[in-house]
Specification:
Radius of gyration: 21 Å
Number of helices: 12
Number of domains: 2
Shape: globular
Pfam families: HTH_18
Oligomer: single chain
Number of strands: 8
Largest sheet: 5 strands, antiparallel
Strand content: 15-25%
Distance between the termini: 31 Å
GO molecular function: DNA-binding transcription factor activity; sequence-specific DNA binding
InterPro entries: Homeodomain-like_sf, HTH_AraC
Helix content: 40-55%
Keywords: DNA-binding, Transcription, Transcription regulation
Protein name: AraC family transcriptional regulator
Length: 291
Amino acid sequence: MNKQANVQVSDFTAEVKLKGFKAYEIDSKSGGHSYNRKDFYKISLNTGTYVFHYADRSFETNETILFFGNPRIPYSCEVVSTINEGYACLFTEEFLKLSDRSESLLQSPLFKIGGTPILTLNKEQKAAIAPIYQKMIAEQDTDYAFKDELIRNYINLIIHEALKLQPSENTPEHKNAAVRITSVFLDLLERQFPIESTDRPLELKTAQDFAKQLSVHVNHLNSSVKEVTGKPTTAHIADRIIHEANALLQHTDWNIADIAYALGFEYPTYFNNFFKKKTGHIPKSVRAASL
């Protein structure tokens, strides 16, 4: 990604973070929007040919679909057709949770691993849902004092309409289960970084943590990762933590105790021992060498 593209991603992400939401139209000419997926929920109405990869499953569709993206679950989309259209809405968890009734909607099968993140729509269903997006897009630029609440209602309405639909049966099996679950694990691992604040410490620190998040048995995760990469799950986690630790030691002014906490260590001593075992150095010497 070039420098200009990085700026565009940063600007778009900053805008969604500031407002808590963003609705926009998708078309073949615009190329859509890039943003940091680990920050936002997404609901999109897509017409075209796509291959969605969601957790350890893949969905191929050439119809009109509703897609529900959860920032805690790795996903990606391959656009196959040259003509594609639709609408999308990004929103933060905090934005939707300002409505007391919305929190339970985020716990619905639409946003869960093993649930139904893709629903196929017929023409009538598309005709009913598309205008809701159009209203969101028009409303987000107004000066109406209660527009946030109105947009929350629109988002809730789309979710409720989706919950009334039958799940799509177009869910082909992925070709290689070990490759897919490994890819999902590595994506989920990377999504936790970079660590940007000591107030948000690392959440997933062990193979068991990742297995629970991915709704698979830890033995299945470990065997898949080892089969595909030749390295155990714990080695990948440890290597990524060490990489981040080096970056924080060299490029921030956080004290070592704060770095230890941010990386998920209960006590600085645990971090010091872990770091020395993996690198042969103590954190303090890496910090000193960078000054």
